[in-house]
């Protein structure tokens, strides 16, 4: 029987402090799983530091390493897609470069893969070092998103997961511009298995997340999977018009029976301000979706590759 091949995909952005350590841990792991053929696909997401030379040096020692060098920093979501596109294995495992996720878990993932699961993902048991407010808002966010979109989004599941060929081929076909991969895993379906792990501290370097990326991702999550906000704003519109109609009748009858009076300034102001606010919010919601449509219609490639180093050769490539 042919040996099964597993690609380990590592998207990285300025991770010079940890790459070598990561490689050593992964290398040890591959020795323990001698039933499989491993290769490593490092995806450079526009690093400015010494990360690329470090990977190239590792590659000289170990021919299983390939390096996909993207043309700039596109963000982890896109870097992961590039990794999925270029992975050659029968399955792949996505892992962060910073060793917060224990590589040893890959063994367990492989076991479940052997038992027929297509998507084996690891969930952080406890989110240490996060404030109560962040925990609360994030759990609320996922509850709303899940209810609104009707697809399973597993809140604490990150991108540390094994995907088999079926998942890989499915995900490759979803080429939306503003990706929210967490939802895509659920959307494509297939047989899923959940595992748990304790997240470690970063092995070195600093986190690459900014509050704005988190906000963007949260917004993308909603606009990619549900049009419910549009429906809600339409419904509010109906209710408000109905109430306004009744109030109009009251004012009309009052005026006819009791004669016109110039009072009513407060109700006028309240009406104008309240309705004005509602209109702006609805416009904003429409704008969010329109923005998405605009981005998608441009139909741009999702990323460009500067160079692909693999085996003994390096290839300069253009569009993928
Ligand atoms: N990363 C990336 N591109 C980015 C930001 C992050 O490829 O624009 C990589 C990063 O190098 C790491 C992984 O994504 O391998 C997770 O990032 P990080 O550890 O900073 O996120 P956190 O664990 O703090 O959520
Ligand atoms: Mg991390």
From TrEMBL:
The keyword Transmembrane applies. Residues 7-169 form the Glycosyltransferase 2-like domain. Its main location: membrane. Signal peptide: none annotated. SUPFAM superfamilies: Nucleotide-diphospho-sugar transferases (SSF53448). It is found in: Cell membrane. Keywords: Cell membrane, Glycosyltransferase, Membrane, Transferase, Transmembrane, Transmembrane helix. It comes from the Bacteria. One of its GO terms (molecular function) is glycosyltransferase activity. GO terms for cellular component: plasma membrane. Pfam families: Glycos_transf_2 (PF00535). PANTHER family: GLYCOSYLTRANSFERASE CSBB-RELATED, UNDECAPRENYL-PHOSPHATE 4-DEOXY-4-FORMAMIDO-L-ARABINOSE TRANSFERASE-RELATED. This is Glycosyltransferase 2-like domain-containing protein.
């Amino acid at each position: 029987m042919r040996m099964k091949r597993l690609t380990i995909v590592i998207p990285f952005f300025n991770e010079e402090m940890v790459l070598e350590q990561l490689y050593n841990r992964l290398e040890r792991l591959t020795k323990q799983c001698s039933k499989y053929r491993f290769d490593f696909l490092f995806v450079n997401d526009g690093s400015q530091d010494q990360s690329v030379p470090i990977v190239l040096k590792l590659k000289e020692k170990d021919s299983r390493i390939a390096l996909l060098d993207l043309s700039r920093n596109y963000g982890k979501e896109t870097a992961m897609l590039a990794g999925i596109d270029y992975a050659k294995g029968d399955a792949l495992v996505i892992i962060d470069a910073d060793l917060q996720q224990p590589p040893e878990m890959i063994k367990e993932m492989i076991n479940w893969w052997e038992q027929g699961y297509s998507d084996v993902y690891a969930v952080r048991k406890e989110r240490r070092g996060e404030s109560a407010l962040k925990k609360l808002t994030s759990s609320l966010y996922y509850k709303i998103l899940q209810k609104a979109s009707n697809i399973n989004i597993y809140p604490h599941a990150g991108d540390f997961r094994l995907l088999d060929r079926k998942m890989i081929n499915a995900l490759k076909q979803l080429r939306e511009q503003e990706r929210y991969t967490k939802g895509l895993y659920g959307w494509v379906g297939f047989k899923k298995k959940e595992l748990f792990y304790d997240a470690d501290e970063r092995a070195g370097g600093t986190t690459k997340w900014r509050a704005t990326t988190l906000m963007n991702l949260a917004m993308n999550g909603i606009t990619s999977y549900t049009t419910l906000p549009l429906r809600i704003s339409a419904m509010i519109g109906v209710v408000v018009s109905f109430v306004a109609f009744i109030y109009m009748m009251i004012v009309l009858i009052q005026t006819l029976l009791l004669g016109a009076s110039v009072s009513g300034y407060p109700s006028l102001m309240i009406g104008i301000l309240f309705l004005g606010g509602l209109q702006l919010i609805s416009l904003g919601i429409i704008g969010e979706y329109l923005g998405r449509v605009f981005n998608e219609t441009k139909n741009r490639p999702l990323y460009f590759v500067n160079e692909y180093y693999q085996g003994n050769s390096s290839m300069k490539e253009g569009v993928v």
